[in-house]
Write a structure and sequence with these properties.
The protein is α/β, with parallel strands linked by helices. It has one domain: Aldolase class I (TIM Barrel). About 40% of the residues lie in helices and about 15% in strands. It has 9 helices and 8 strands. Strands 1-2-3-4-5-6-7-8 form an 8-stranded parallel barrel, surrounded by 6 helices. Strand 4, helix 4 and strand 5 form a beta-alpha-beta unit. The longest helix is centred in the C-terminal third of the chain and has 14 residues.
């Protein structure tokens, strides 16, 4: 299980890369669950990481764009994808427009990672459809970070079903959503390909500065031998 660490600046990206992050995820946590950074900032961070020989993969979000704004989603995907990132993350809300959005993303020519927003539960029909559309990875995340972690929002049975479905499709599977060290045993039980963190590695709330010590502790603990499986 690899670590995805969300950052908002060059300084934070360098801290993440030296502190054990496998994936570096570019977002503005002060602007929502998938808050987007300006494209100029994304380019700056990507350039700084590559100039220092950081080989880890880089993702970036397009921002919290509503499902009914399909044209805006498409434009944001192209703008972020042109910044040199390895993956473009797009939030997928549980709404009627989700199917058309997923269809458009599958044909957009960019390496898109759909991120299913779990606050209202998962639509497993849409997850199953996305599993057939050739995306490199699929994720689950939460929108309301004040409602606890992902494990407070979805039951283990649903998370296990999501992980198993995506893995069976051959895509990578990721979990995120205000995850903390206390979630270690359940994460290791599910064994996603990667787990995303922001809140757990900040000195204060998720909008505060990345804390190198917290990151090192998290990386060390998450890479210890898996704990015994836990039930739902």
């Amino acid at each position: 299980m690899k670590l995805l660490i969300s950052v908002r600046s060059v300084d934070e990206a360098l801290v993440a890369s030296s502190g054990g992050a496998d994936f570096i995820d570019l977002k503005e946590p002060g602007q929502g669950a998938l808050g987007g950074l300006p494209t100029a900032t994304i380019r700056e961070i990507v350039g700084a990481l590559r100039a220092r020989g950081v080989a880890g993969e880089i993702s970036a979000t397009i921002g919290d764009v509503p499902m009914h704004e399909a044209a805006r989603i498409a434009a944001c995907v192209q703008a972020v994808g042109a910044c040199g990132v390895d993956y473009v993350k797009v939030g997928i809300e549980r709404r009627p427009e989700a199917r058309a959005v997923l269809d458009a993303l599958a044909d957009c020519g960019r390496p898109v990672v759909p991120v299913f927003i779990a606050d209202q539960g998962l639509d497993f029909d849409e997850v199953a459809r996305a599993c057939t559309q050739g995306f490199p990875a699929l994720m689950v995340d939460t929108a309301d970070k004040l409602c606890g972690s992902l494990f407070d929002v979805l039951p283990m049975a649903d998370l296990r079903r999501f992980v198993d479905m995506v893995r069976a499709s051959g895509a990578l599977v990721g979990l995120a959503g205000a995850l903390r060290l206390a979630d270690e045993a359940r994460l290791k039980s599910l064994q996603p390909d990667f787990a995303g963190f922001r809140s757990a590695v900040c000195a204060g709330d998720r909008s505060s500065t990345l804390d190198p010590h917290r990151l090192q502790v998290l990386a060390r603990q998450m890479r210890e031998q898996p704990a015994l499986a836990v039930g739902a």
